[in-house]
TrEMBL record:
Domain of life assignment: Eukaryota
Coiled coil residues, start to end: none
Pfam families: DUF1989
Annotated ranges, domain DUF1989: 46-91, 119-202
The protein's name in its UniProt record: DUF1989 domain-containing protein
């Protein structure tokens, strides 16, 4: 169906909105990436192929995910480190900010287009899992992307119900002209990195993706195309960089979403609560 004019964006924000990660403070943080003396390494480790690992990044720190041995994609989940019910909402973020879900909406972390319209580090992916695989006619398998993420968080008291839609790090994804989801070859090279600035204390879970397919693949073939990911957590050496930054607060909305409590008509001293 043709429309007389190009549809306008459904949501817009003024240039002064904090949803944009282009303010001087964010540019100053980004500028420290190329200066080793501007950051203090707090933690680093290697994420093995076909596995998952979870860790904490404190507010004001920078986390870097690298490709030490060549192209490799990963699934990224983010939670509030103190409240896992507050987590990143990939449907509520694009390009430079990841937001939390309705009721807690605030920034959690701050972070090209191919000839086919694909975007790297895209937000379309939902991760592969054993349930969809069975629906698509596959067989049971314990090392899907969802499984890698789940194993990593169990030791921290979370379950697979806490694992949610991901940000596909180093992966190019998009929708074709028929609206079908597609993935392109990982464009990352050895030594490339993706990094984000933690706006609040966050709990991170990354799965080092297995070879994608709805068909069964031999482990040998999977391991031959899967490489490790590196993780580095930094503090900024110069605290003045964050002088104009402050941790975002949760909305103070205390309404009832239109629900009205009936009057309390019980006698004094009773436990009648009016609902």
């Amino acid at each position: 169906m043709a429309t007389p004019r190009r549809p306008t964006p459904a949501y817009t924000a003024p240039s002064s909105s904090t949803i944009h990660a282009s303010s001087p403070v964010y540019r100053a943080i980004a500028a420290t990436a190329s200066d080793l003396s501007a950051r203090v390494l707090e933690d680093s480790f290697t994420l093995r192929p076909c596995s998952g690992q979870a860790w904490t990044v404190r507010a004001g720190q920078v986390c870097r995910i690298t490709t030490p041995l060549g192209p490799q994609v990963g699934d990224l989940n983010v939670w509030n480190a103190h409240n896992p019910r507050e987590r990143d909402s990939m449907g509520g973020g694009q390009l430079d900010q990841v937001l939390t879900p309705d009721g807690m909406t605030r920034r959690t972390v701050g972070f090209g287009i191919s000839q086919w319209g694909g975007r790297v580090h895209d937000l379309l992916g939902t991760r592969c899992d054993p349930y969809v695989n069975l629906l698509m006619g596959g067989q049971s398998f314990d090392f899907y992307c969802h499984s890698n993420l789940t194993r990593a968080v169990v030791a921290f008291g979370l379950t697979e119900l806490d694992v949610h839609d991901v940000l596909n790090v180093f992966q190019v994804t998009g929708l074709d002209e028929e609206g079908k989801y597609f993935m392109e070859t990982c464009p990352a090279e050895q030594g490339d990195y993706f990094e984000f600035f933690a706006e609040i204390d966050v709990f991170i879970d990354v799965g080092d993706l297995s070879a994608w397919s709805w068909e069964n693949k031999e482990n040998v073939e999977m391991l031959a195309t899967t490489r490790p990911l590196g993780v580095e957590v930094y503090s900024l050496a110069d605290p003045d960089i964050l002088e104009c930054w402050k941790e975002p607060g949760s909305p103070k909305y205390t309404g009832m979403h239109g629900i009205k409590m009936p009057p309390r008509n019980g006698q004094e001293g009773t436990n009648y609560c009016g609902v």
